[in-house]
Amino acid sequence: MQRQRPGTFAGYGGGGGYNPDTGAASYGFTHWDGDTYITETLYRHKGHEFTVIERMRVEGAHVIYRHEITGPGDKRDEREIVFDI
Q1: What was the pLDDT predicted at 5?
Q2: Range of the structural domain that residue 71 is part of
Q3: Would you say 37 and 26 are in contact if contact means Cβ atoms under 8 Å apart?
Q4: Total tally of structural domains belonging to the chain
Q5: pLDDT, tens only, 29-53
Q6: Comparing C-alpha atoms, which of 48, 53, 36, 52 is closest to residue 73?
Q7: How many CB atoms lie under 10 A from the CB of residue 40?
Q8: What does pTM read for this prediction?
Q9: Cα distance between residue 41 and residue 3, in whole Å
Q10: Which residues contact 31 (CB under 8 A, 6 or more apart)?
Q11: 3-class SS at 74?
């Protein structure tokens, strides 16, 4: 666990749920890596597992959002979006 950042409501947290009727589940947690806020969510849907990792940081006049998705067969995709502020 890392120190809570000024202006944030939590330094580390997580939660999840499972629906036995549909076999769907998710669990997510958040944490800081330096100045980057990271959310990692693990999904299970009808026996298939997915992992989504989101990273957000501010660099100068930009907010940089990046996500990585890994799914069945280790298929993976990454995207990055830069927002001007």
Answers
A1: 53
A2: 25-84
A3: no
A4: 1
A5: 999 999 999 999 999 988 899 999 9
A6: 48
A7: 16
A8: 0.78
A9: 21
A10: 1, 2, 11, 12, 38
A11: helix
